[in-house]
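From the shared-data thread, chain only:
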Amino acid sequence: MSTPTSSDSKPVLEVTDLAISYSTRKSQVPAVRGVSFSVRPGETVGLVGESGCGKSTIAFGILDFLGGNGKVVNGSIRFKDEELVGKSRQELRQIRGNQISMVYQDPMQALNPTLPIGEQLTEVLTTHQAISRSEAQKKSLQMLDRVYMPDAKTIMKRYPHMVSGGQQQRVVIAMAMLNNPALLIMDEPTTALDVTVEAAVLDLIEDLKKDFNTGIIFITHNLGVVARVSDRLCVMYAGELVEKGQVTEIFTAPAHPYTRGLLCCIPRLTDSLSNTQLWSIRGSVPHPSERDRASCIFLPRCDWHRENRPEYSAALMQCGERHPELLEVSKEHHSRCVLGAATLKTPWDDYFRGKMRQLSTDEDDDEATADFDKNLAIVRNLKVYYEHDTNSLKDVLKLREKSYIKAVDDVSLRIKKGSILGIVGESGCGKSTLVKGLIGLEKIRGGSAELMGVDISTPVFKRSLDTIKELQMVFQNPDSTLNPTFSIGKQIARPIRKFKTAPRHKVRKEVEKLLSAVKLDAYYYDRLPRQLSGGEKQRAGIARALASKPNLIICDEPVSALDVSVQATVLNLLNDIKFEFGSTLIFIAHDLSVMRFISDFIAVMYLGKIVEYGPVDRIYPPPYHPYTEALLSAVPIADPTARSTRIRLEGDVPSALNPPSGCHFHTRCHRRNLLADGGGICEKETPPRQKTGDGHFLYCHIPIETLQKAAAETGD
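Structure, as tokens:
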């Protein structure tokens, strides 16, 4: 977290009593109401809340990007003492991209795929400044260097699809900063990035803020990220601000029940490994057309009201009778709750421990005695290669040997029955390719894979129905796997009929049973996917995977795009499925705090190879592989007062087409200087397998004792 700016400095942006509505065929639907906040130069104001709370709507309202049916119906937006509401599009066009810039969640939506990156950068300058094209190119190159872009000259000539996701995001940030804007709006800029790339981007944002004294609005649902970058915080719920104040005060003494609920949902690296449940907020954010403005909007989901504590009973009676105002909790800290500062009578630490105790009373003692002795699946020296065809004359005439992208290279694993195996690593390390090879969606080029003694090294179309039945998958994006024209019930019923897991006359009853297992009511049978929230669609995808009663379920990044409250619900559900159905799961993620909560065993992958493997309790404390150490240090912590040693990996993951010799990680390793030869052996020889005990091993030339000592000296 950066040092807060002086409260005496004049705000660059002042939003006062902002209300935004969208026109529908029936009526005006209010999306944002009564929002007020300010942003000072050199200050970052975080906007957090679940999807549908109005965070992005506020950002688009500031820029007047609300579309044809959206408009600001009340309030004021003053930028540098100039009112933006009511300005013409021509006037706003001179401000947008010049004095106010925006960085979007998906950089590919902000970049033109048909133009080289250099042309897009220079256009930003020539549009808003009286500057020659050559001077604009020079400044663009300097800005790419400023955002730590490797080989900036080459990047200027490339098209957006020719650079990695992290590099694309740096290009968009460089584009936003070219005209030295007074205000930078960042809408979920790190959601889709790996933890290492995310850490580099957050470092970059802090550096640019100091150098340019830019005010920043940072929109995210990741509380760990917002704790690190923000000076002040605004918590949004159902189109309203429910709490705002200094970020340190809100995280250490949250005053609104919604803020407390969000903080309880987060899996932490310091949590006990015996925890099998996360706290989750019941229900979901109401649709704008269904929000009761005559009472507290959060009332149906509020723990304070549900627990009905005697000391608060008189005040809580008002929740259903009037809409609460923002009340002062302390100087610059306000909460939209009838209890006001009385919420702090229950300190945050006591409140959090109380929630954890409530969860622990629901745990079954039998869950802690899982039997992991039997192997459900065995993978030996698995290889998944992609043929690299350049369409050059030599390749067409077959004048040279074929080259291959080694996405998965010589991987061996034993997957224990009834366990959850987590596979973690950066994008491009081979996680998804490995599981696609197991499920039969990618061709296996070498090695073998067995499930319950049956060979699954063949493509899916060559497998028997019995084999397909035992291995199912939950994908990252449920929208891309659910048919929008069929009801949820019909889509879950299809595999039941296909694999004959229930008699035909009992199919609907079986579907309703599966819906109940994933915490959805029976009436969801007839609902279409568009009528479900993101978390509900993911639960429907899990129910469909369970329909064939498989022994192994593969989950590929199933919670990476979800809000923390929905994420907690889905993670709890997967744990319940493991215990109730006896299922074995492979869980892919890039969030190591999520991985620590859900997994029994963890495999760390880098450039197609496993570099570390072991039980979850042996992976997180040292000694660990230098790559694992870097991943752990990059995890954003939901505590603005926390200080940890940050390890930043240099450069991007090398190409799997031509991986480095010896240890693949040696080109980015921060520990290679611990070896007597300065890491020379790392460049020449494949690292040996070193065991630490209890099934934990890693592949590294550095002795275990040296790694242990180095981690202790850095304070890990």
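The chain has 26 helices and 24 strands.
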